[in-house]
Amino acid sequence: MSLANKKIILGVTGGIAAYKAAELCRLLVKAGAEVRVVMTAAAQQFVAPLTFQALSGKPVLASLWEAASGDGMEHIHLSRDADLLLVAPASADFLARLVHGRADDLLSTLCLARTCTLAVAPAMNREMWAAAPTQRNLAQLRADGVQLLGPAVGEQACGETGLGRMLEPAEVVAALPGLLGAGLLAGKRVLITAGPTFEAIDPVRGLTNRSSGKMGYAVAQAAREAGAEVCLVSGPTCLAVPAGVRRIDVQSAAEMRDAVLRELPSDVFIAVAAVADYRVDAAAPQKIKKSDAGLTLNLVANPDILAEVAALPNAPFCVGFAAETERLAEHAEAKRRRKHLPLLVGNLAQDTLGQDTAELVLFDDRGAHPLPRADKLTQARHLIRHLASFLN
Q1: In angstroms, what is the C-alpha Rg of the chain?
Q2: pLDDT, greater one: 67 or 18
Q3: SS3 for 139?
Q4: 79-83, 128-132, 304-308: range with lowest mean pLDDT
Q5: Nearest to 88 by CA among 23, 183, 4
Q6: Residues 386 and 378: beta-carbon distance below 8 Å
Q7: Domains 7-179 and 189-391 alike in fold
């Protein structure tokens, strides 16, 4: 998953997030990439070109009329040797120009004339991000094969909070090997479930669990970093979708099952979601009123999504998760064998639920492989490397 010797064009557009592009440039160079920076006129109002020249070790290009190549065709030559054209930050204006094929400055012309992959890391105010024109533009960019990295949710320079922040530079760098086909899962399609499910009792109440979705989202990010095409079927969470991952939102176990079956076939299926084992037999159409007489609910079993997928004739490589409260090795290994899984991840629920760290054990035919406590993204990367060893 190295960026060593990769040739990356870093396009910087106008916006306060341009300061992040400086750190991004530094991290790319540190990772061994050869970086050439192209700035728009607006970007230069936020960060001086000299900053990027010092960080990249190469002159910054900003004008169509610069003759660095000697024949005035820099907008053609630049992308011919490049592995990736990355625009970060990508303003709402620049995204709109991409959609319409504008070519009125060096960066936009380079995007239109490129022969390499184009990725953009959007950055804008939350209302600009949510605006209908921006969402239409994003849909068209996805259809055109442009890779979208982010944005993230958080506090913005304007003082508002919401979706629209540029991803942190380290997050952008982590997503790039997957775009360059340099990962352990390059060319593989990975389907992942994450989060809890919510089983309605009536229109305002339901049965759920304490799963935060953090582990599943970390696995999705790690799989994307490894070069896989990742689809994440997610129950209700407050988490931002990892860069480059396609998310499908569901509520109930039945909705999750239907979404998973629609997304098959895949090379790998990783069932991280804490799917409710039971649902109410018949949810009430109206709110159930409180009564001193108490309430009895008739529960029926939910479908076992993982077992169903693993039993398919053309089943993908299936990975299960087992959150236990006692006798982890015994219960996890029994579950793996019962569902005929090549790999299962076990953990003690009381040590993991809702936390940012986890202590995991990987179970396969070769035995148990403990992973000492670490943050969930680190654990997810260990899991992906272990999984890849089976596929490769």
Answers
A1: 24
A2: 18
A3: helix
A4: 79-83
A5: 23
A6: no
A7: yes
State the Cα–Cα distance between residues 257 and 266, nearest whole angstrom: 15
Where in the sequence numbering do the catalytic residues fall?
Answer: 158
> Could you report the per-residue pLDDT of 135-156, keeping only the tens digit for each?
999 989 988 888 888 787 777 7
CATH class of the domain at 7-179:
alpha beta
Q: What does the alpha-carbon distance between residue 44 and residue 37 come to, in Å, rounded to a whole number?
A: 12
Interatomic CA distance for residues 309 and 340, integer angstroms: 11
**What tokens were used for 66?**
């610069």
| Domain 189-391 CATH assignment equals 3.90.1150.10 | no
| Residue bearing tokens 């006692």 | 326
How is residue 352 written in tokens? 């993991």
The domain spans of the chain are: 7-179, 189-391
Give the closest residue to 184 by CA, choosing from 214, 222, 135: 222
> Three-state DSSP class for 378?
helix
* Residues 340-362 pLDDT 10s: 999 999 988 777 776 788 889 99
Residue 233 pLDDT: 98
Cβ atoms of 332 and 344 closer than 8 Å: yes
88 token code pair: 């970060």
What region, left, alpha or beta, does residue 383 occupy, with left being phi > 0 and alpha being psi -120 to 50 degrees? alpha
Which pLDDT tens digit goes with each residue over 238-262? 888 887 789 999 999 999 999 999 9
> In which element (H, E) is residue 128 found?
helix 126-130
With tokens 């089983």, the residue in question is 199
